[in-house]
Amino acid sequence: MRATVGRVCAAAGAELLAEPAGPTSSTRAPLADTELVDVHHAVRGRVRPGTVLVGRPEDTGLWDRAAELGGCTVAVLPDAAGWLADLLCARSTGGPGPGGTGHVVGVLGAVGGAGASTLACWLADRAAQEERTAVLVDADREGCGIDVLLGLEDRDGLRWPDLQRIAGTVHAEQLWPALARAGRLRWLSWDRSRPDGAPAPYAPVLEALRRAAELVVVDLGRAGPAAADTAVLCDEVLVPAPRTVRGMLAARWAADLLAGVPARLVPAGLNVADVDDALAAAATGLPVAGSVRFCGGVPEAAETGRLLEAGRSRRLGRDVAGLLSAVGALR
Fold first, then answer.
1. What global pTM score does this model have?
2. What does the pLDDT look like over 28-45, one tens digit per residue?
3. Which of 26, 66, 88, 136 has a 20 to 30 A CA-CA distance from 206?
4. Which residues contact 278 (CB under 8 A, 6 or more apart)?
5. CB contact at 8 A, 33 and 86
């Protein structure tokens, strides 16, 4: 692996400083632009922001290990050699990379119907309304497009199928103006075509959006292994869950699935099981970021293209603003 990484570094014009395996600490080279960790030598504990875990296609548990290390980016070599070289080149010349100014927040539904997609839309929209540079990213491949939920599927702009054949770095200055938009809000959605099995370039695209926006909100869909793989690309994840026994059990499972990714709970809807925030936190092991109250008009609003309008109401808007403050998007 060291020889493979060495060739990538040489192609990027970067110097490889090899260190023996050991605890991640301040003893590691403080001036390194990027820390690369071989999956076979990774130790327990969190790693620096922007760390890349490297491995080969035959390395099982690569994504699980990345989650245990705090959600670092993964490069599977040699397939990702071009992408990794571009990343090293950008960082060595001052490019912001994953540690750039943008904050990436994932929204993962504990159960189906928990309102993850709706909450993701409202978070991105409220940030845009507050004059933050915000983008909504649809990472729920089988959801037929978050643009439909927005009621804006007729807007021109890039969709994920347009980006599936890209290789290497995605340039923020090219991606940003090509996104669909309404006012200050931009989004990147899946469409209604049948998934062809090709992997989505979530890592390079999210990195580019991080460089372009102050806030990137990622709709991860319902909790599951595929969603967990994408969640490791986020700085933190919000987990909306109904205030029910089943909702809390599902949120506990989602917390285990997320492993080392920083996550917080968002109790949502009617409190039919007498689950207050303290009980929810104790039952799930997740701290509570805030809650979203029940509003009976939301399903109709979603079906009639008025979802964003519903989220801007005074009561729901206060809940959404509170969550944005909790993740540091509003000061």
1. 0.71
2. 444 456 788 888 887 776
3. 26
4. none
5. no
Contacts of 249 by beta carbon, 8 Å cutoff, 6+ apart? 283
Work out the pLDDT band at 24, boundaries 50, 70, 90.
very low
CA 110 to chain centre: 15
**Amino acid residing at 93:** T
3-state secondary structure the chain: CHHHHHHHHHHHCCCCCCCCCCCCCCCCCCCCCCCEEECCCCCCCCCCCCCEEEECCCCCCHHHHHHHCCCCEEEECCCCHHHHHHHHHHHHCCCCHHHCCCEEEEEEECCCCCCHHHHHHHHHHHHHHCCCCEEEEECCHHHCCHHHHHCCCCCCCCEHHHCCCCCCCCCHHHHHHHCEEECCEEEEECCCCCCCCCCCCHHHHHHHHHHHCCEEEEEEEECCHHHHHHHCCCCEEEEEEECCHHHHHHHHHHHHHHCCCCEEEEEECCCCCCCCHHHHHHHHCCCECCCECCCCCHHHHHHCCCHHHHHCCHHHHHHHHHHHHHCCCCC
Rounded Cα distance between 126 and 136, Å, is 11
Q: Which two tokens stand for residue 222?
A: 């319902």
By C-alpha distance, which of 163, 160, 201 is closest to 73? Answer: 201
- Which architecture, in CATH terms, is 103-326? 3-Layer(aba) Sandwich (3.40)
Residue ranges per domain, the chain? Answer: 2-95, 103-326
Question: Which has the closest alpha carbon to 34: 15, 61, 21?
Answer: 15
Q: Residue 91: pLDDT band by 50, 70, 90 thresholds?
A: low
Name the amino acid, one letter, at 278: A
Amino acid 272 reads V
What single letter denotes the amino acid at residue 290?
G
pLDDT tens-digit readout, 101-154: 789 999 999 998 889 999 999 999 999 999 999 999 999 998 889 999 999 999
Q: Which residues pair with 238 in a beta bridge?
A: 107, 264
Give the span between the Cα atoms of 49 and 235, in whole angstroms: 9
